[in-house]
Amino acid sequence: MANKIIISRKSEWRNRNRGFQVFIDGREVGKIANGSSEEYQAEPGTHTIQCKIAWCSSPELTITVKEGENSFVTVGSAMKLYNAGLVLALLVIVASFGIPSFLHMPLPPYFGTVQLAVFLPFLAYLLYYQTLGRKNYITITEDDNNIFR
What is the pLDDT of residue 119? Predict the structure, then answer.
């Protein structure tokens, strides 16, 4: 039995049309599409795995491949709050422009503060993963609960 590193990528809305580049021991070995799995041959021993997309990446994961066994890894986007923040931002936009104009009523004077309270944390969240957190943009973990183990 050949030893393999099997990498599974969760199906997610974010980055759904872009493949993650897969690096094993610093060498690019392929890409993994949204919601798919890829297998890579590996010699027994210690290996480092990293995934990248554009200029963002995962941290390096060190795994040990044992003789006659496969190692399983799961990757996905670290931006877990992206969809919730996007929905909240859209609701604020609708509440800001759609409802008052539909009902022919003025916005309350404090509404600008409410908009800032919603948009600034969401904007900071997006900016973090594009700047300081770009090396943690992708999560990568060894999958100890894999049913094929």
Answer: 74
> Taking phi first (over 0 means left), then psi (-120 to 50 degrees means alpha), and beta for anything else, what does residue 147 get?
alpha
Q: Looking at the structure, do residues 125 and 97 belong to the same domain, yes or no?
A: yes
**What pLDDT, on a 0 to 100 scale, did the predictor assign at position 49?**
98
pLDDT at 126: 80
- The predicted pLDDT at position 71 comes to 93
Written as six digits, the tokens of 119 are: 């948009």
Count up the domains in the chain and report the number: 2
Q: Which residue type sits at 34?
A: N
* Amino acid at site 90: L
61-65 vs 138-142, strand pairing mode: unpaired
Tokens of 72: 């399983």
